[in-house]
Amino acid sequence: MKIILTLFLTLSYIPSEQCSTFYLIRHAEKVRTDKSDKDPKLNEYGMLRAIKWQEYFSEKNISKIYSTNYKRTLETVKPIQESSDIIPIIYSPSDIDYKNFIMSNKIEVVLIVGHSNTIPDFVNGLIGENVYSQIDDLNNSNLYVVNICESGISHKLLKID
Predict the structure, then answer these.
(1) d(CA 28, CA 72)
(2) Contact, 48 vs 161, CB < 8 A?
(3) What does the longest C-alpha to C-alpha distance in the chain come to?
(4) How far apart are CA 89 and CA 49, in angstroms?
(5) What is the fold of 17-159?
(6) Along the 161 residues of the chain, how does pLDDT read in single tens digits?
(7) In the chain, what are the domain boundaries?
């Protein structure tokens, strides 16, 4: 009986699947007073949203942060960086090789911060499908979640206000 039980437990053991999780957000609200400023900082609402993002991600076990090299994206991740001691990795949306990006972030929990015209393309590149369109310029609440596991890819869009 003991041998049968041991054999059953051995055969029924399924190792946990290894997954990578990618959270993608657009930077928080920016100052809009000077239309010629291509690199504005966050406004008051943006600073508050950055703190809300930090609260949201505080229990997500983020292991890496990727940000474009703009004041508004770096200010968006600053509270998260300060609470986690994770230094953001600067990336250029036009230089992403998605296959290599996925491989270099295997089994990680990654936060990616970008822009209304880059984050949906980034999500589409990760999932290998053209599902998400450009974010409205006044929308700073989208959260895209992509899970890439050995068994497949899942993705969803949430609104976090």
Answers:
(1) 7
(2) no
(3) 78
(4) 21
(5) Rossmann fold (3.40.50)
(6) 444 434 344 444 455 789 999 999 999 999 999 999 999 999 999 999 999 999 999 999 999 999 999 999 999 999 999 999 999 999 999 999 999 999 999 999 999 999 999 999 999 999 999 999 999 999 999 999 999 999 999 999 999 99
(7) 17-159
User: Both tokens of residue 21?
Assistant: 């999780």
Report the C-alpha gap between 6 and 4 in whole angstroms. Answer: 5
Write out the chain in H/E/C secondary structure: CHHHHHHHHHHHCCCCCCEEEEEEEECCCECCCCCCCCCCCECHHHHHHHHHHHHHHCCCCCCEEEECCCHHHHHHHHHHHHHHCCCCEECCHHHCCHHHHHHHCCCCEEEEEECCCCHHHHHHHHHCCCCCCCCCCCCCCEEEEEEEECCEEEEEEEECC
Q: Checking phi first, is residue 47 left (phi over 0); if not, alpha (psi -120 to 50) or beta?
A: alpha
| Strand arrangement, sheet containing 109-114 | 89-90, 64-67, 109-114, 19-26, 142-149, 152-159
Token output for 17: 């699947």
Task: Name the amino acid, one letter, at 44.
Answer: E
